[in-house]
Amino acid sequence: MSYVSLLRQRPVLVLWLAETLSVLGDRIFTLALAWTAWQRSGAVALGLVVVVESVPHLLFGAFGRKLVARFASFSALAGVEAAQILVVGAMPWLWPSLGLAGVLLVIVLVGTCDAVTGPSLSALVPGMVDAGRVRQMTGLMDVTGRITWFVGPGSAAVLLAFLPAEKLFLVDAVSFMVSAGAFAWLGRTVTAGLAPEAKSPSDHAEPASERAAPRALTVLRGHPRIGWALALSGVGEFRSTVLTIGIPIWLTSQLHAGAGAYAVVLSAMGIGAVVGNLLTGNVALPGGFPGGYCLVWTVRGLLLAAFAVGASFPQVLLLTATASALVPLTSIALNAEIGSLPGPERLRLFTADSVKVHMASMSSMLVLPALLERAPRVAFAAGGALTMAAGLIAWAASRGLSRPVVVEQPDGGMELSRT
Q1: How do strand 404-408 and strand 414-418 relate by DSSP bridges?
Q2: What would the DSSP string read from start to end of 26-66?
Q3: How many other C-beta atoms can be found within 10 angstroms of the C-beta atom of residue 204?
Q4: How far apart are the first and last CA of the chain?
Q5: pLDDT higher at 416 or 143
Q6: Beta strands per DSSP E along 269-399
């Protein structure tokens, strides 16, 4: 089934449009926040904003599994989105009146809402379609982020021609209004939920709260293939800073290019990611999961290392576009695999995935920029080699793993076996 066929279903269309506007608003919010923090409080404030926004994701992922599970419905998410309307909309006036400390508190509140909304929405989306369409639905939601990745800054640039930077927060507040309305409607329309599966005789001693909000390690022990994939993607997310920060450094220090060249590279990254999504969102991962997934990460590492020998702007442009086209292939594959799990399990692993992303991003921002500034060629080569090694190790380790399958027994019971 194609994306167009999915969008003919009204609930899917409503969710996709609302999420597209929401992600676009988030992109504009990030730009407005970064610019305002830089102008009014300096570079230290900009760094604090990035760190503080990630803290709720780490805390909720580590200690808030039961709380996140309570918000895993469209009706509950509508309330979370509505709460952010006033918070984000008040940012233009909060900054001068409360100062940096007050704004950081607001960022914590927004980050807390996002730590609840992100995993919950990711876990709810697969339940809106049949099991055979989970991959296509995952790809459809993925393309939203790919499109807004470069449309967002462009839209912000247009708005900045008519509005001061701090007024861009109001645009994000409007997007929250739309999302809140859409989630409220979906809560009344869509029956998909994350209720735990019925107990089997073998888990009679397991508390209901544990089945509704299982521990991440418990889920990963039952799905080691996904565990290896998450670990590999964590390494990949860590090294992604080499690409995002290293490209402008490489362009200026090695190729003596300017801001115009960087803008072209960013456009190539965005276009490559969209094309990659459209090519892979409706087809199975070559080589299957997790074998093909690991090998794609290995190729991504090879492309990253190739930047170290990129001696011309066309070479850098080609490498960037090709590497970006592979990003949706890995993200859709992992999210679709998690999305195929029962509701509580996929909610827990989507939460764990959020923790992984923020932990990798924070740690890489602390370690890699200094290396990139001093030795960009070494950073590209080392980052690529690390990713290739991790991909091959994960591939070798996952080859002996089997997929868990639920088999119905003659007496009507269910037994977990492996194939």
Answers
A1: antiparallel
A2: HHHHHHHHHHHHHHHH-HHHHHHHHHHHHHHHHHHHHH-HH
A3: 7
A4: 27
A5: 143
A6: none
Model-level pTM?
0.83
Do 53 and 107 touch, CB atoms closer than 8 A? yes
- Local structure of 204: helix, strand or coil: coil
Per-residue pLDDT for 254 more than 60?
yes
- Name the region of 99 (left: φ>0; alpha: ψ -120 to 50; beta: rest): left
Q: Which amino acid is at 166?
A: E
**Encoded tokens for 340:** 């195929």
Instruction: Determine the residue type at 377.
Output: R
Residue 199 has pLDDT above 60, yes or no: no
Q: Cα 419 vs. chain centroid, distance in angstroms?
A: 30
The helix (run of H) or strand (run of E) holding residue 404 is strand 404-408
DSSP code of residue 291: I
Helices (H), 281-312: 293-306
Q: Which residues lie across from 405 on neighbouring strands?
A: 417
Q: How far apart are CA 47 and CA 51, in angstroms?
A: 6
The region of weakest confidence among 187-201, 207-221, 358-372, 401-415 is 401-415
- Contact (CB, 8 A) for 384 and 392: no
Q: How confident is the model at residue 326 (pLDDT cuts 50, 70, 90)?
A: very high
Distance from C-alpha of 14 to C-alpha of 26, rounded to nearest angstrom? 18
